[in-house]
Amino acid sequence: MKYAPYVCSILALVALVANPNPVAAQDGSLKFPVASPPASVPDQIGLTNVEIQYGRPGVKGRTIFGDLIPYGELWRTGANAATRITFDTAVTFGG
Q1: In what order do the strands lie in the sheet with 48-55?
Q2: What is the per-residue pLDDT for 44?
Q3: CA distance linking residue 88 with residue 21, whole number of Å
Q4: How far is CA 76 from CA 10, 44, 54, 55, in A?
Q5: C-alpha neighbours within 13 Å on the C-beta side of residue 51
Q6: C-alpha 31, offset from chain centre
Q7: How far is CA 57 from the centre of its chain?
Q8: 28-32, 78-82, 88-92: which range is least confident on average?
Q9: Is pTM, for the whole model, over 0.70?
């Protein structure tokens, strides 16, 4: 049957056109990644569990250190939200 590939293609096209839920992206269900995704770093120091939560700034193909941010200067973390640090025991800073 030499027309079989064409028939299959036409049936697939008809099924796509007749589908009442055409594409998930049109109903808003498609989720794109945020430009600066949240990140966290857990660790244990002695007997204390520490977690730092921050917004990981997107590099987006740029050269950050030495170009966008000169060497020796801080690159602000916490994009889109303030950086949080949590401890599971009481801690003292600076004495």
Answers
A1: 38-45, 48-55, 84-87
A2: 97
A3: 48
A4: 55, 24, 10, 10
A5: 6
A6: 10
A7: 10
A8: 78-82
A9: no
**CB neighbour list of residue 42: distance below 8 Å, 6 or more residues apart:** 49, 50, 51
**Cα separation, 14 vs 54, whole angstroms:** 48
Q: Say if strands 48-55 and 38-45 run parallel, antiparallel, or are unpaired.
A: antiparallel
pLDDT in tens, 29-79: 788 877 778 889 999 999 999 999 988 777 778 888 888 888 988 876 556
The closest of 59, 58, 25, 55 to 41, measured between CA atoms, is: 55
Question: Position of tokens 């640090």?
Answer: 85
Q: Which pairing describes strands 38-45 and 84-87: parallel, antiparallel, or unpaired?
A: unpaired
